[in-house]
Amino acid sequence: MQHLDPESLSLLALGEELGDDAADHLRSCTSCAAEYRGLRRAVMAAKPGPPDATALEPPGPQVWAGIHRSLGLSAAVADDPLGSRTSSPSPTPSGSPTPLPAREERTGRRQEPGRGSGWFRRPGVWLAAAAATALLAAGVFWSVQQNQPAVTPLAQAKLAPVDQHSATGSARVVEAKDGQRALEVRVDKNEARGYQEVWLIAPDLSRLVSLGVMTSESGTFSVPAGLDLGEYPIVDVSDEPVDGNPAHSSVSIVRGTLAS
């Protein structure tokens, strides 16, 4: 005999309708019936509002005995206060029908062909899944926002093409909460024949500091601590040949001056 799968039992416990075949099996199979009753008790216990006493498993007398012993209560309250309510319900005789969910017993609807018990075909489950997904997305977004350091813009510049180049872009310096500064650079296209390198340069072009290689059309580069941006206000993106020479190639693609 093929038993009901866990998904079907869970849906039944939630009050879903799976048709007469599932209902008939649940009436005749003691194993599936027992599992259904356990799931149903869990569903009823999780419902908001006062719990349904008929759906909860009453505690045995040993529970009160343990509480009485741990708290050192007097002999006058040694009897289990729930003793009159802890009598277990009579087990369902073998072969007797197992109570079905109220909706199933009331309607007795047969499942239509092609409308399987897959959760994705049930609007209620879809709504629950959509709500859970929205909450999860909101939680992830909030977590990401919380983990990202807040930055304060310090200066920015428009990057204009140099000589024969046509690329344009922008740059800005931001400061994180810990005081670390970074230069964010963007260009609308990569015109380097070799590779792009980002520089901060003095106004008279006599001194320069390399911040690193930019392998795409944007990049973020740490600004060395103690570097005075007033002395190195020019942002330059150069075209560097792969020749092992760390000096500026003298071929600039874009350039701009930082301003607060």
What is the number of beta strands? Answer: 8
H-E order: HHHHHHEEEEEEEE
Please give the alpha-carbon distance between the first and last residues.
Answer: 78 Å
Helix segment tally: 6
Rg, rounded, reads: 36 Å
- Average pLDDT taken over every residue: 77
Major sheet attributes: 8 strands, antiparallel
Helix content: 25-40%
The structural class is alpha+beta
Identify the overall geometry. Answer: elongated
- Total count of domains: 3
- Lateral strand order in the biggest sheet: 5-4-7-8-1-2-3-6
Unreliable stretches (pLDDT < 50, length at least 5) are: 86-98, 102-126
Portion in beta strands = 15-25%
Task: Write up what this structure looks like.
The structure is a single chain. By secondary structure, this protein is an alpha+beta fold. It has three domains: 6-117, no CATH class; 123-148; 151-257, Immunoglobulin-like (Sandwich), CATH 2.60.40. Helices cover 29% and strands 22% of the residues. It has six helices and eight strands, in the order ααααααββββββββ. It has helices at residues 6-13, 20-28, 30-46, 61-71, 102-107, 123-147, and strands at 151-161, 169-176, 181-187, 195-201, 208-214, 218-222, 234-240, 252-257. An eight-stranded antiparallel beta sheet has the order 5-4-7-8-1-2-3-6, with no helix packed on it. A hairpin with a 7-residue loop joins strand 1 (151-161) and strand 2. Helix 1 packs across helix 3 (30-46) and helix 2 (20-28) packs across helix 3 (30-46). Mean pLDDT is 77; it is low at 86-98 and 102-126.
